[in-house]
Amino acid sequence: MAVRKSLILIALFTTSCAYFNTFYNIKIYFREAEKIYQEQGQLTREATTRYNKVIEKSSKIFEYYKSSQYVDDALFYTAIAYKRLGNYTQAKIKFEELFKYFPDSKYHKKALLEYIDLLIVINYIDEAITAIKRNPELSKDPDFLMVKAKLFYANGEYRDLLNLVKENWKALQKNPSKKMIYSLALDCAIKVGDTEIAENLLKQLEKLANSDNERVYLVTTRAEMLAKKGEYEQSVKVLEEAGFFENSPQYRIIKYEKARILTQKGLYEQALNELKSIEETSLRDSVYFKSLFLKGKIMETLDSLTLALSIYQDLRNFPIPQSIREEVELRYRTILEVSSDSLGESDESKLRKAELFLYDLKNPEKALKIYAELTDNAKSEEVRLKALYAQMLIYLFHLNSREKAKEIAEKIVKEFPLSTQASKILELNLLNVKRE
């Protein structure tokens, strides 16, 4: 009897040890994963392994210890783990289970903030706003600033986000989410053209950067800001002085960005040389696919449509991101049409070809060249008028040359005074053109 009692006690002790050991491991894996995730600012292989361990170990708590005092802990850790791993459906389920079964959990406020953030990420904006209204106490939490910033960003309220940052500039210095808030605000500042705050945000982020991925993002952002101001040489210099190891992932990104900026400047041969070094490696990553795509667009500009078509054909067979795939498909089909014999060489077919370059291939320079040819050589006055009007619009809206646009507008009003195009020019009065 004594032996049996001892065996029962040993079994109970072993079960108890296994229970506490399981929860202890969950806690350790979670803390390690979060530490890596927060420090790196992204999901790494090490963090992924630990988050998966959190999910695996927590499942044992849910299966074998349903009445445990640590079930809400396990639910919270699991919800966060799923969220970090990008499994948003499971994350949402676990958060909602936590709110339903443990309304008084010590994790309630933290879970709510993470949950609202998740709703914003998956674009459940109305649901996120409703959750905020139901929990007004959240506005006092420092982490709420991050949620509010993300909500502004998701709604395209860029100036509101920038005002939020300006109003809380000092408070942000101690905010644990300041790096992410600064990053969102920087993107907004670039979008709205607020160079002063963009520069201030960039400097703040440069002080906080603690990984190569963050540093390469900041270097390429600074280069892009300089390029937008027309300071191409300085932009390229910033990239060349980045100092990443050759053939590292960051080095490849720098090479691609350099090629992209050289392309903006119209230095196509130099850009192609940069892209060549990326192509020559056997690594087929996102940078490789973007480089190939950029090369295709350069070939279009250089009128090498056959080569561009071949590049897009190759890209169609690769596992490229959906955003690139859609544009690749559009350009591929457009070039097929542009190159098709069915277009012929009539003035109408040239108009169609110019439209394809302008609207589908986003190549106003090439379209302008075709329209200029039609202006000089078109047999029909109607086609010539259409070509002139299209040139005016390209100079006005695509090439930012109001002087040239006004010159063409005046020609239209003078030579075709009764046309619809002339009436539009006079009615809109965008270029201050008057009838003689």
Structure explained in plain terms:
- With 436 residues, this protein is mainly alpha-helical.
- 77% of the residues lie in helices and 0% in strands.
- It has 23 helices and no strands.
What is the tally of helical segments?
A: 23
pLDDT < 50 stretches: 3-19
The end-to-end span amounts to: 118 Å
Please outline the major beta sheet.
none
Q: Into which percent range does the helicity of residues fall?
A: over 70%
Mean pLDDT level:
87
SSE-based structural type: mainly alpha
Instruction: Give the overall silhouette.
Output: elongated
Quick one: how many beta strands? Answer: 0
- The whole-angstrom Rg is 30 Å
Order of helices and strands: HHHHHHHHHHHHHHHHHHHHHHH
Query: Strand-residue fraction?
Result: under 5%
Helices and strands in order:
Layout: H1 2-40, H2 45-64, H3 71-85, H4 88-101, H5 108-121, H6 125-134, H7 144-154, H8 158-167, H9 169-172, H10 178-192, H11 195-208, H12 212-228, H13 232-240, H14 249-265, H15 268-279, H16 286-301, H17 305-316, H18 322-339, H19 347-360, H20 364-377, H21 381-398, H22 402-415, H23 420-428
